Amino acid sequence: MRKFVNYLKESYVELTQKTTWPSWPKLQESAVQVLVATIVLAAVLFVVDFAFQHLMTAIYTL
Fold it and tell me: How far apart (Å, rounded) are the C-alpha atoms in residues 27 and 20?
């Protein structure tokens, strides 16, 4: 049990004193970048899927 309590104490110290956390504006900027990248990737996949669907439809109707 002592090892577990020691682990919790060391984890707390590491998270509060040794870890550098991003500032709020930097965190918001990163979230916006992830959102934009996700939207772009979804749009690209939509176009590829749309083109592939029409290509397969054209092949099957021959």
Answer: 13
Q: Which residue type does 6 have? A: N
Amino acid type, 5: V
Task: Find out whether 30 and 22 touch, Cβ atoms under 8 Å.
Answer: yes
In the chain, the amino acid numbered 29 is E
Tell me which residue has tokens 């916006």. 32
Residue-wise pLDDT tens digits, 8-62: 999 999 999 999 999 999 999 999 999 999 999 999 999 999 999 999 999 999 8
Give pLDDT tens digits for 41-56: 999 999 999 999 999 9
- The domain locations on the chain are 22-62
Q: How far is CA 42 from CA 25, 50, 53, in A?
A: 26, 12, 16
